[in-house]
Amino acid sequence: MSTYESRLKGCEQVADGTFAFHFEKPAGFHFKPGQAVDLVLPDPAPASAHYAARHTFSLVSAPFQDELVIATRMRDSPFKRVLKSLSVAAIVRLEGPFGSLTLHGDRARPAVLIAGGIGVTPFVSMLRQAAREQLPQRILLLYANRRPEDAAFLAELTQLEQRYKYFHLIATMTQVVKSASPWDGSTGQIDENMVRRACSEYAAPVYYVAGPPGMVESMRNVLSDLGVNDDAIRSEEFFGY
Ligand SMILES: Cc1cc2nc3c(=O)[nH]c(=O)nc-3n(C[C@H](O)[C@H](O)[C@H](O)COP(=O)(O)OP(=O)(O)OC[C@H]3O[C@@H](n4cnc5c(N)ncnc54)[C@H](O)[C@@H]3O)c2cc1C
């Protein structure tokens, strides 16, 4: 694994309590959509006993873009406090890229991406790159959030569906009653029924799952109950967000 120095270019809010951080792309940094990096922050002063300076993030930017972007919910942890306090041009270390949650090469075989919350990040990277290349591969994204306000990159994904004919998006909200925004799309958790209905016209897809650990586990069970072979399910566990 390689180590790179990079500078923070800026950050922006992409959903309620959720920020994207933009970094310069170091020379020679190459990655595949869906891969992740370890972000290593400068040590805070004074050093805190519970502060781990390193955290893994999927890259939300796509390889064709000239910057590296990560996105995360800004929960109150020492790491996130330091991340949020970084000034523009602060120097960080990036280690990677790594991870095998990357789109399979057989374009005739569809991909079904199942995302919970900010776990959507690796899929945004895949979809940006696939749309850019107009990849002739059917891709379905099932994307669950509590409320529309929590759904990072939803507007971009909706637009992407318009200009990339192989891509279909199903966004669902699980706590829409707590939302101040109107929502006339799908509601309720992604469960066996939703997966069966949504995937009925996709022949032998490869499934990719990213989200809270409980959701990843429950989706693996749902897919297994639907008779999907383990070889056709890809996910990675990111704990501690
Ligand atoms: C491959 C991968 C990449 C990731 N990349 C990142 C990253 O780049 N940045 C980052 O911050 N985090 C990342 N994560 C971590 C991740 O998604 C966190 O666990 C997430 O932050 C959880 O909080 P949330 O607020 O987004 O989800 P929540 O709002 O808690 O949940 C999102 C949705 O999932 C649904 N859900 C929850 N549990 C279940 C269940 N058992 N069955 C069905 N639906 C359920 C909820 O109802 C909700 O609609 C990644 C995880 C994986 C596996």
TrEMBL record:
Q: Which UniProt keywords apply?
A: 2Fe-2S, Iron, Iron-sulfur, Metal-binding, Plasmid
Signal peptide stretch: none
Q: Report which superkingdom the organism of origin falls in.
A: Bacteria
Question: Which PROSITE patterns would you find in this protein's record?
Answer: FAD_FR
The molecular function terms in GO held by this entry are:
2 iron, 2 sulfur cluster binding; oxidoreductase activity
Is-annotated flag, keyword Metal-binding?
Answer: yes
Residue ranges constituting the FAD-binding FR-type domain according to the UniProt record:
1-104
Cofactor(s), names only, from the UniProt record: FAD
Would you tell me the protein name for this molecule? Oxidoreductase
Origin organism is Cupriavidus necator (strain ATCC 43291 / DSM 13513 / CCUG 52238 / LMG 8453 / N-1)
